[in-house]
Amino acid sequence: MAVSIRRAATDPMTPALLCAGGVLAAALGSSEVLAWMGLGGLAGYALSGSV
Amino acid sequence: MVGGALSATVAWVAAGVLGWVPRPLRIATLVIIGLVVVARELQLIHVKLPANHRQVPQEIFEKGPYWSALQFGFELGTGIRTYLPSAIPYLLLAAIVLLQASFQVALVAGACFGLGRAAMAWSRTASQDSGSWDLSLRDRLRVIQSLAAVASLVACATLFIG
Q1: Of B108, B111, B147, the CB nearest to A16
Q2: What does the buried/exposed string (b/e) look like for B75-104 if buried means 16 or more CB atoms within 10 Å of the residue's CB?
Q3: Confidence of residue B47 (pLDDT cuts 50, 70, 90)
Q4: Which of B7, B36, B112, B138 has a Cα at 20 to 30 A from B92?
Q5: Which residues contact B111 (CB under 8 A, 6 or more apart)?
Q6: Is the confidence at residue A3, as pLDDT, over 70?
């Protein structure tokens, strides 16, 4: 159980889904600062795999 | 976060310099950049983007674990000394410049860019199986980048309208 929770929480898709969902909810909900935060997070996470 | 905030500050200065450009022209430019970025991430077109193609040098690790980690994290956060497998950072940069983001907003977006970069390392370490995590990322990176591009474009559109 703990292993599967960790696996889901650390899945590479998880931050992308959270960020994309957050940015869309913030943008549609007129929360400008949160939308900018999500935009920044998505841009940074999209570079995953590159150091 | 500090590295990302620094890059965003530079973008904010550029936004001030381009303040004389009429808003309709800035918005049209952002729309074009946004559509190109999304098409590129969906692999509909092939566009080669300007990139540094230089990674953070190995020599920084001679400075000891504390300073080398600090410098590595800072340089990683700037998004400058790295390969760019995705065009989405260009969309963020264009949005800050062309939507004339305020300094506070640019700073927050830049810091979150750094957090986004760090999320990769945190998630990989927390998985306790970096080999499987790398394979999983390799399989899903295209989906992640496509999702991020579409969400970013929608967010830019709503920020413009709002």
Answers
A1: B147
A2: bbbbbbbbebebbbbbbbbbbbbbbbbeee
A3: confident
A4: B138
A5: A40, B1, B2, B4, B5, B8
A6: no
